[in-house]
Design a protein that fits this description.
alpha+beta, four-stranded antiparallel β-sheet, 12 helices, 305 residues, Endonuclease I-creI, DNA binding
Length: 305
């Protein structure tokens, strides 16, 4: 089960009955038809539980008797599509939810009564996510929450609702409409709190912490490996130079302090500068060891002149 499905199932388990939630679902997934008896309403979804939820909302608020129908998609995925079909009280429902103008292209944004009310805003966002929302698996790739809309002003309206809860929502045009999206993990966590998907929020946050911990460990390991590589490279250069001195003028030609450092470096090529400093008869600072090693390297370089 994908993370998106888990979020939607948690939202459905809340058993919230909010008109703003129903309005969002109908606006984003509904279509009108005409029959002998007047207008008909069809609301489609690929989730059987969401279809059942729509059915319950219509019955709860309007005592409307709708049918749940289904058919198989003909594309490669062949998902089952559920349609909640209603052929009564459609005009009443559209008027009550302030959706009448939306279906005739007159008003494609979000009603002001929703934008101005916090409870209605939360419910509308919940319905919008149930209808066409998705969250990328937080364990894979970048974080992303998206809600798809047909119209630009509706997508911007959803962004406004999110921004009302201090979320950094943006919109972008796609081939089949406009997407309102969040990309920061913190914003997605806050969105889940806004719509009251608390279990999903905790799961997302836990995964985020684990990812950050793994990334920190990887960075630390990479830095450590880089330090080791630098140490080995510097060590081999110095060892080669000491060997050159031994083969040409002899180690005894060096001052005693340089001889001691050269001896330790030759016998312990894996030692760090600090370990060399600690191994001296009279321990000195790391900068002191580096100074002596530079002297040894210079003496070796001068032998080539």
């Amino acid at each position: 089960m994908s993370f998106t499905v888990r979020v939607k199932e948690e939202l459905l388990s809340l058993k919230r009955f909010e008109k703003s939630e129903l309005a969002a679902i109908i606006k984003m997934s509904g279509s009108l038809g005409i029959s002998m008896g007047g207008l008909t309403l069809s609301v489609t979804t690929e989730n059987a539980k969401i279809a059942r939820h729509i059915y319950e909302l219509l019955h709860h608020f309007y005592e409307a008797k709708s049918d749940i129908r289904h058919h198989q998609k003909t594309n490669l995925k062949k998902n089952r599509v559920y349609t909640v079909f209603l052929d009564e009280k459609v005009e009443e429902i559209l008027a009550d939810l302030h959706l009448a103008d939306a279906f005739f292209g007159i008003e494609t944004g979000i009603d002001a009564s929703v934008l101005e009310d916090e409870v209605a805003s939360r419910a509308y966002l919940r319905g919008a996510f149930l209808s066409s929302g998705s969250i990328k698996d937080p364990e894979k790739g970048k974080y992303q929450l998206e809600i798809h809309s047909v119209y630009t002003d509706h997508a911007e309206g959803i962004a406004l609702l999110m921004q009302g809860f201090l979320l950094d929502a943006k919109t972008i045009e796609r081939k089949k409409g406009v997407v309102t999206y969040l990309q920061r993990a913190e914003d997605i966590i806050d969105f889940l709190i806004v719509v009251e998907a608390m279990q999903a929020m905790q799961e997302f946050e836990s995964i985020k912490v684990m990812r950050e911990t793994r990334n920190d460990l990887n960075r630390a390991n990479n830095a450590e490996m880089a330090n080791i590589q630098r140490t080995v490279t510097a060590s081999m250069k110095t060892i080669n130079n000491i060997s050159k001195i031994v083969d040409t003028v002899g180690l005894g030609s060096l001052p005693s302090d340089l001889q001691e450092v050269a001896y330790i470096r030759m016998n312990h090529p894996d030692y760090s500068i600090q370990q060399i400093a600690d191994s001296l008869q009279q321990p000195i600072s790391k900068s002191g060891v580096n100074h002596r090693l530079r002297k040894i390297n210079k003496i070796a370089d001068d032998l080539d002149k």
